[in-house]
Amino acid sequence: MKIEGTVVAMVTPFTEDDRVDEAGLRENINYLIENGVDGLLVAGTTGESATITHEEQRRMIDILVDEVNGRVKTIAGAGSNSSREALGLVRYAGDAGADAALVITPYYNRPQPHGLIEHYRMLEEASEIPLIIYNVPSRTGTDIDVDTVSELAGLDGIIGIKEASPDLDKISMLKSRLMELGLDDFIILSGNDNLTLPMISMGAEGVISVVANVDPARMSRLVNEALSGDFESAMKTHYELYSLMKALFIESNPVPVKEALNMMGRPAGHVRMPLAPLRDSSREKLRLVLEELALI
After folding, report:
1. Is residue 82 part of a domain?
2. So which residues are the catalytic ones?
3. Distance between CA 8 and CA 207 in Å, rounded?
C-alpha cells in the first residue's frame, strides 16, 4: 500500500441543527477529487474528532468509502487515548473498506515509549488494513521519538507516519534511520502544510493537508511539483499559498478553515463547542487572503 501526494484532512460539515451534513460531506468529497487530490481523510483533528460521536465517526467512514468508490485513497481517523476504543475504530474502518487508518498517539495519558509500542503493535496485529501513526505533540502532549517510530516501522501493518512536529531535523534523523534499517518503503507524510515543501526535499512522500480543503488544486500542484523534483516551481507555489497556510491557523484549527469554506459557499457550517466562531478581526484577515487568491 502506497499513500502519497495530497491527502485532505477533511472538515466535518454540520447542519444548523448540529447533525453531520451527510449530503455536504459527499459534495465536498467530489469537489476535492475533481480538483486533483490523491486521498481523503475523515474524522481526523480537522474533522473535529474530539467532539464527534463514535456513531457519527463510523457513519462518516461508511460515506467516505461509498462516495469515493475507489477513485482515490480513503483513510479513516481511528485513534483514541484508549487502546480498546482505538481497536474498535480500526476494526470498523477495515470492515468498512477504508484503505488505511490514521491512529493518533494517545493523548492526555501520555504513555511511555514502550507503552506506545505495545499500543500500536496490538492494533497492527488486529487490523485488516494498514495503519499510519499520527504524531502531533502540540495536541497530545506526547512526541513519539525516532527510536520508537523506527521499531514500529518494522511491523508489516504499519506503513507510515503523519509527522506534525515542527522539528525538521527529526525528519532527517528518521529518514536516515529508516534507510539504515532498509525500511525505505515506510511513508513519511507532512502534518504541517507550511513544512510540506522542505519535508518532501528530505524524503517525505506528501502531506495530510488542511489547506487542501480550501485550495485543493493549488496544494496538489505544490506537492506534485515537489515530488517530481521541480523545486523551483514548487517554491513559487509554496509562496503563493503561504499566506493561506498561515491564515488557516490564525485561531485553533478547524475554526478558520470552516469559516473559509463558509465564505466560499462550500459545506462546512459551525464548529462544535468548546471551539467558538472566528473573531471578527481574524475573519477580516482571512477574507483578505481568500480574495487575494481569487477563492472568493
Report:
1. yes
2. 134, 162
3. 8
